[in-house]
Predict the structure.
Amino acid sequence: MTTDNDGADIPAELGAQGADASTEVRGWDHIGAIIVDAALQRRQNYHATVQPRVLALIAEWPDAATTSGFRRGLDTGTLSEVISWPSPGRLAQVEDMTGVLEREGIETVTELRAALGDQARRALLREALGAVRHVSPKTLDYIDTLSGTSTGAAADGGARSE
């Protein structure tokens, strides 16, 4: 069964396990988790498909809370095994999104929030991320949510499998 209600499956406050469970903010306090979540969420059921893989990433690669730590993990070539995701398209998207954060000098979720909170820097960052294949304006809004700069419920359009 599929649904077009993409907002129904975005993460709620997740508490421990690397999530930022501030009062009204939802998301991750882990750069790798934000990137993987944003890359995998398109046309996927959040609770059945995305969340378990993000939690596996956090457990296996705690150092991926920073962009440089995530890069070290990516350089091992084992992301596919860590998140149990064999499809090369999403893995390439993860790689490309990571490259954008590296080029923009964003190392932590705090720095990502700051960049997204600064209007000039936000525009440049969104433009750079938007140039990555399959990163739509809704994905950019979803990254805002995952980084804690928005409490909106954006997710990519299209059907999700249940």
Notes: Residues 109 and 156 are 21 Å apart (CA to CA).
